[in-house]
Amino acid sequence: MPARQVHLAAHFPGVNNTTVWSDPASGSQIDFASFVHLARTAERGKFDFFFLAEGLRLREMKGRIHDLDVAGRPESLTVLSALAAVTTRLGLAATVNSTFNEPYEVAGRLATLDHLSGGRAAWNVVTSYDAFTGENFRRGGFLAEADRYTRAAEFLQTARELWDSWPDDGGTEGEFAHRGRHFDIAGRFGTPRGPQGHPVIIQAGDSAEGREFAASDADVIFSRHGAPAAGRAFYDDVKRRLPRYGRRPDELKIFPAVTYVLGDTEEDAAERAAEIRRAQVGPETAIAYLEGVWGRDLSGYDPDGPLPDVEPDLEEGVSKGRAQFRGDRGETVRRWRTLAADRGLSIRELVIEATGRQTFVGTPRSVADRIDEFVQTGVADGFIFVPHLTPGGLDDLVDHVVPLLQEKGVFRADYTGTTLRDHLGLGPPRGAVRRAHAGAVS
């Protein structure tokens, strides 16, 4: 049996505390030249796609703008439309919120990107979980969380109907009518079908509902499970759901978000990785992260000292706009206290340990071998690399690891198609008529 082929994608850094802004090589997350550099590097490495996240409101900590990680970023589809002019094969993936947008507008912008890029558009479908973000749209918490998920599923269904309103074999161009719980619209869709028919659909949720949504409707999952055991369990679970929707395992690609650090030796790489983690979690970031979990002002605590002995405030808390601090914060506190006690960790050391996600650390050869091993053993179909530097963070990976994957025969030497669907080995999109699903998408 031939070896499975590795898929690679790139995430533009500049969200959370991933980027080491203090590094002399760190550049702007706003300047278009930064986007161009990373995108062209990914294309030089024959990556499948370039991924942009979305932020609909600046995060706050204790009522003030939180700029320890990033204070602003441009709108994704605008940036990707510009990148379409300076790249030729690289897929262009935008995160676009389904809670505070409308299907007609989003479907038109994505179809336009697909035309401008010659069939390279992708849409990461997400919802907004908080009324804090909604305040920017004058409708706050206008939907319960479960309803946001049903809106997202209907949003995608409606967008597919709009794209399909331009038939391949003649007929009435653009005529549509959708009658549903969240959308009641009719008219003519103004943008012809793009080269891919539908943009590639990406889903980034992890709940049971999110996994079901991905199995029924997505082409790619942006997963957080990069470690072997967790990754393999997630991979197997989602792939098992596909047959009920008449889909084969190769019709849904799973891409965990990962990082890498290279060195001349394994020891050198491990030392560099530790230095990077300490730079990513400085004293202020460590306290801010702890405050997000505890829900309290902890500015009086020493980041190199022990955890606070106060109990967490499990109400609204002091952090707004960060999905990391959702869920059972009380359980997180208990788990962190156990970890800190067992290993004698300070606040900063604990945050470094608890939030670290350095997946591939080693020499170029050992990193290439591990990437290949993870794909061959069913941990993932590929990886979305999130570099720690803007914009040159992919340079070493493309220059030193990708050639070794090509040498092993598990990664393309050149693009063999023109569209993102070609790169991913996906067939034509499924039609718009499908079972309505109430699954979560974020």
From TrEMBL:
Its EC number is 1.14.-.-. GO terms for molecular function: monooxygenase activity; oxidoreductase activity, acting on paired donors, with incorporation or reduction of molecular oxygen. It is an enzyme of class 1 (oxidoreductase). Residues 25-380 form the Luciferase-like domain. The keyword Transport does not apply. InterPro entries: Diverse_substr_monoxygenases, Luciferase-like_dom, Luciferase-like_sf, NTA_MOA. Keywords: Flavoprotein, FMN, Monooxygenase, Oxidoreductase. It comes from the Bacteria. FMN binds at T95, Y149, S207. Belongs to the NtaA/SnaA/DszA monooxygenase family. This is NtaA/DmoA family FMN-dependent monooxygenase. It comes from Actinomadura chibensis. The lineage of its organism: Bacteria, Bacillati, Actinomycetota, Actinomycetes, Streptosporangiales.
